[in-house]
Design goal:
Elements: H1 6-12, E1 19-25, H2 33-45, E2 51-57, H3 73-94
Parallel strand pairs: 1-2
């Protein structure tokens, strides 16, 4: 049986899985402190080999023709909530804390 070398040890060593981070914040459509901070965090982690981060917007944009309903006062809240909660649950389950 051959003796293991340092190269063999490097090949068999497994890399730890990337930490999956879902950042829940407003998108940049709503300019403010939280959206700017979230974008800065995403920019900082963009090339990180250890962290996979993405934004979960609290203000998801509906597809056409439903996007026109955002201009109607109370329907905006209903449409946004109908999109937001399923999105939030799906994206949190993808994160490291969801597993």
């Amino acid at each position: 049986m051959p003796n293991p070398t340092a190269d063999d040890a490097v090949l068999t060593r497994s890399t730890p899985p990337r930490l999956r981070v879902a950042i829940v914040a407003a998108s940049l459509r709503i300019i403010g402190g939280h959206s700017v901070q979230a974008q800065q965090m995403l920019d900082g982690w963009r090339d990180s080999p250890e962290i996979d981060a993405w934004l979960v917007p609290i203000d998801p944009q509906p597809a056409a023709p439903f996007d026109r309903l955002l201009w109607v006062k109370y329907s905006r809240t209903v449409i946004t909530q109908l999109l937001y909660w399923p999105l939030l649950l799906r994206e949190i389950s993808r994160s490291s804390s969801g597993q």
